[in-house]
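Progress note, sequence design subtask.
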């Protein structure tokens, strides 16, 4: 599994984590498939914000219907680890093993440095997720075609061939007369 994000998304994640420092911050990863197209910062509902985070259910209830209307989906979550590496803690492993099987991005902040890693936690097992950054990864090199596009393409090839054949025949010299 891998997550693909633009340089802007990565910068937004780090900026959100730095703004919340020394508290943990959290939010939603929005996109399609494995592509993060937007982040939605949410309030940290934990009482001890320096060592814990809780994404309020109200944030999910507010944002998910709007995303679906836009053709987007919740593809994961994120939170920060102030003064720590972006590795899931024991608390993370217990709390994030929620059956959704969505990736979780961790932003480790040790000022002035930041590091991002992504993980999937399932059945108390922590598996790394490839974190790919770059705008070139966000577009498909070959877009899928509809059947109408396919038939239009085939018709244009056929008509081009016929036009070439007719022009070639008209440019031939006249045939010699037979004796």
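Output:
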């Amino acid at each position: 599994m891998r997550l693909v994000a633009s340089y802007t998304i990565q910068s937004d994640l780090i900026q959100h984590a730095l703004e919340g420092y020394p508290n943990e911050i959290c939010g939603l990863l929005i996109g399609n498939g494995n592509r993060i197209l937007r982040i939605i910062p949410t309030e940290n509902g934990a009482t001890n914000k320096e060592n814990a985070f809780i994404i309020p259910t109200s944030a999910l209830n507010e944002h998910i219907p709007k995303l679906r209307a836009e053709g987007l989906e919740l593809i994961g979550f994120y939170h920060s680890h102030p003064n720590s590496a972006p590795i899931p803690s024991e608390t993370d492993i217990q709390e994030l093993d929620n059956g959704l099987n969505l990736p979780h991005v961790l932003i480790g902040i040790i000022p002035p440095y930041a590091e991002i890693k992504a993980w999937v936690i399932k059945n108390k097992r922590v598996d790394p997720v490839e974190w790919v950054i770059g705008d070139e990864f966000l577009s498909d090199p070959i877009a899928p075609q509809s059947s109408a596009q396919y038939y239009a393409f085939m018709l244009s090839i056929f008509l081009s061939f016929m036009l070439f054949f007719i022009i070639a025949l008209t440019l031939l010299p006249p045939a010699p007369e037979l004796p």
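The mean pLDDT is 90. Work on this subtask will continue into the next period as scheduled.
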